Structures are given as structure tokens and as C-alpha cells.
Amino acid sequence: MEGGGATLSDVYQGAKKLLLNTRDGMERLERLDYSASSDLSFSLSNDISQIQSLCVQMDRFWRSIAAKSQRDLWKRKLGSVCWEKEGIEGGMLFSDPSMAKSIHHARF
Q1: Which residues pair with 3 in a beta bridge?
Q2: CA 25 – CA 77 distance, rounded (Å)
Q3: What's this model's pTM, rounded to 2 decimal places?
Q4: Which of 26, 43, 44, 59 is the most buried (most CB within 10 A)?
């Protein structure tokens, strides 16, 4: 389960922290005038892209776990992180349609 010195648990904890920070950023963005907050929007877009990368990394990790019960647990945890990321992403797209293009580019 090692990959570049990080364990699945380390990557998961990092993703959860980043999700919390991103959610806080979304709340700040909602309080601001969206047109006046391009730096924050750009930062949130980068965070979402980073969370997506962590989801890909966690997906590789959990598939390498031998015990089925542990695989199932981590699969659910990964699903939770990805679902939360998609919710934040959807909120950004709803509140700031101009972000759709940058998020789309960050994914591909």
C-alpha cells in the first residue's frame, strides 16, 4: 500500500482536509460578489483538481488491498470523498457558471 511514501490513510486524510478547506472557501465565495472574487474561484478550482487527483490515487490504493472487508471500507470512503468533491464542484458551477470551463479543463 505504499506509493511515494504515502499510505492510503495519509492520502485520505489529506483529501478530507482539502475538502474542508474547499468547503470553507465556497462559503467565503458565496458571501462575496462572484465577479470580484476571481482569485478565490481560481484557488477553489485548483483545490477541486487536486482532490480529483487524490481520488485517482486512492482508487489505485484501495484496489491493491488484499482483505475484501478492508477493500470495501476504503471503496466506501473513496466514494464519500468523490461525492463530496462533486457536490462542491456542482455548487461552484451553479454559483459561478464561468468556472465550468476551468473545472472542465482541470479534469481533462
Answers
A1: 6
A2: 23
A3: 0.75
A4: 44
